[in-house]
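Q: Could you write out the predicted structure for this multi-component system? I'm mainly interested in how the pieces pack against one another.
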Amino acid sequence: MVKVRIIPCLDVKNGRVVKGINFVDLIDAGDPVEQAKHYSENGADEICFLDISASIENRDTIINVVKKTANEVFIPLTVGGGISSINNIHSLLKAGADKVSINSAAIKNPNIIKESSEYFGNQCIVVAVDAKKVKNDWYVFSHGGTKNTGLFALDWIEKVQKLGAGEILLTSMDKDGTKSGFDTNLLRKVSEFLNIPLIASGGVGTLEHFYEGVKIGKANALLAASVFHFNEISIKEVKEYLFKKNIEIRL
Amino acid sequence: MKHITIIDYGSGNVLSAQKSFIKVLNENNIEAKVLISKKLNDIKNSTHIVLPGQGAFATCMNGIKNTPGLIEELYDFAIIKKKPFLGICVGMQMLATDSEENGIHEGLNWIEGHIKALPSNNLKLPHMGWNNVKPTKKNNLIENSEDFYFVHSYYFKCKNEQNILAETQYGINFSSIVVKENIYGVQFHPEKSSSQGLRLIKNFVSK
């Protein structure tokens, strides 16, 4: 059977790795190529770069980072952040990215999902959704989790799947940066109707949290940042833990 | 001196494939050139050919059909001269007789079989991630059962069992490596499968 994937996510700003605590305070944590290589050699199943520089003049820095990474890293690489056009997607894939993750651009123009998945194949189009609970419903938030789009998260995810998304990267904005565990209720609700793979993100702080993401949330992949970057938990520890708990994992 | 050519017909991430071959060659001190090309002369001068493929089957087939003389040159290389040939993902699927992806489309028919949709049976599609590849017979491409990275929704159903080199389980048992003499096809991405992928590439280059 296919294995549960463990994905370290590197937030990259102007070519350097940073990680936001709830997307606000940024702490520099190194060179993205070296970090990606380190993670790949230590059991990561994929690597994710989230480009948070996003201003147009800095778009080229991420392209160079991707090119350098492709020389050194031989596991799948997903790049997200600030992608607004088919041209962006094309240049990232050409530079050596395997998948791109689209967020705001899809909210602004859902058709970009359809166009890009038809053109490049749905396997390389990940749609990232930042969800936050307001009263009793989850809503899609944009602009790094600051703006409520008014879209119901579950409806939106169903829609992007229909439009041709190949995977969903679902971040709980309530949980992100809190280290209190994934939002397993949200994950469970989404995985119940989703036919494409689901990547869980936001909130992981302990080994048990990883297990809950798979066992309760039914996620196909687990994404984390700070617990890995600050060496609180190693990918190897996560994998051995999940293996012992009878989760299919690549050791 | 080996000449490895990765066929470029406008399909996906060929750069990663090139980089992985370069990495293997450098690490093993093998003298070689790795080109990304569709020039007929480059193919003629090659010792090894890699046919990558991403996206829809028909788009990939059209990509190689649209380069005049390309199919004939590949045929000469793989079928007549019997030099080492490796198809990756849709590049593997194109070796088949035909595919049912978005209607019936003819393939190269170098290895008899049909490309069929993976049954979903409550499983997520595409089949995406690391899965076990189990050799069904002794061979010099992969020695043991190992995990490789897959991304696909269709699989190669071989007509002849002797063309199956390895199998993988995802809802059903499907052929994850096919073979016919000098021609190999892998459904997964060795260039994205970490050290075990690089080892497979080394074994291919050593042929």
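A: Regarding packing and overall arrangement: The longest strand of chain A covers residues 125-134.
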